[in-house]
Amino acid sequence: MKKIDIYLIAGQSNAAGCTKVRDAEAIYAAVPELRQGFDHVLYAGNARSDASQYTVLENRDVPWSPARLGLGIRNDGYMGPEAGMAVSLSKIYNESTHRYAGLIKFAHGGTSLLEKRVSSNSFGNWVPPSYAKELNIPWQGDPITGELYRLLLAQIERNVKELIAAGFDRIDVKGLYWMQGCNNRTLPREYRRAFRFFADDIRRDVTALMEKLTGVPWGTAGMPIFVGTLSQTFSLNDENTEKAVNIPFIEMQRSLGKEIENCYTVDNSAYAITRWHTCPEDREILGTDPWHWNQTDALEIGKNVGKMMLEKCVQ
Predict the structure, then answer these.
(1) Closest among 95, 92, 85, 117 to 308, alpha carbons compared
(2) Is 40 exposed, middle or buried (0-12, 13-18, 19+ CB in 10 A)?
(3) Spatial separation of the C-alpha atoms in residues 248 and 251, rounded to whole Å
């Protein structure tokens, strides 16, 4: 039996991969496998973003290939969590163990889990069907409400079918890394409410999808969900943003792991992106920009995600 374990990645820009790789050789020196990729840790997915005042959609849909550096939003040197995840997962999935892992990503920068119809969300949001029903708003067929949720399922379906065609006859979904929330950080209470619906719905729908595709939905009914927190210093625009906005939202994200079964928090809060001084002109950018981690931190965060997935998902 040729088996592969699937790890899903979804969310907004820090899932899609907006970290600029400024010194690839430094990463390759530490992890040479990231140049050509890990033979037993595979990757497929779509890292999406908006451009030109939110009127143009950019897709970077990568077919199945060894997981490597540079699988972010553009092919000119951007990375997401998949690089670090592959490093950690390769400890178990490698030539000597004959085990395979597959990373499937669908992520879109600047998007919302909540129902927001503004220009920066013109290509859809992540509203799950049960939450839409709770809000008494249309869901199926709406071009914005729930569109990213539906596209995530479509991405999984397409990539799993490709694995079946490639000869994999047992495909286990092991977990989902959810890195999202920047666009909703002023509404932690509503986000908690929406995320409960999201967790229930995505587990149900991935189970139904995998049963349709494989006949046996291994591992999906209680699929572990790993919630990546925001950075505590995400986009500091004034001296109050960190304490009044970012920290309360991060505390809510941490609580999800205590309130929802088989849900875990990957605490990214200590990885700094900006540093506030006395005025906007003195703000120090530690990340790629005010919103995304630098390459060193992005790699470490991915490693942390992969390590936690191994601890919780692999027997």
Answers:
(1) 85
(2) buried
(3) 5
Question: What's the domain range around 118?
Answer: 3-313
* DSSP string of the chain, one letter each residue: --EEEEEEEEESHHHHT-EE-S-HHHHHHH-THHHH-EEEEEEEEEEEEEETTTTEEEEEEEEEEEE-S--SSSTTTEE-THHHHHHHHTTTSSTTTT-EEEEEEEEETT--SS---SGGGTT-----HHHHHHHT---TT-SSTTHHHHHHHHHHHHHHHHHHHTT--EEEEEEEEEE--GGGTT-HHHHHHHHHHHHHHHHHHHHHHHHHHHSS-TT-TT--EEEEPPPTTTT--STTHIIIIIHHHHHHHHHHHHHSTTEEEE--TTS-SEE--SSGGGPEE-SSBTTB--HHHHHHHHHHHHHHHHHHH--
Tokens of residue 19, six digits: 């970290």
Query: Looking at the 3D structure of the chain, how many domains does it have?
Result: 1
Of 13, 15, 17, 130, the C-alpha closest to 78 is 17
Q: What is the pTM of this model?
A: 0.96
C-alpha separations of 19 from 35, 107, 126, 255 in Å: 17, 14, 22, 27
- CATH code of 15's domain: 3.40.50.1110
- Taking the chain (315 residues) in consecutive chunks of 10 residues, what is each chunk's mean pLDDT? 94 97 97 97 96 84 97 94 98 97 97 80 93 95 93 98 96 97 95 98 96 85 95 91 96 96 97 83 87 98 98 89
CB 61 within 8 A of CB 46: yes
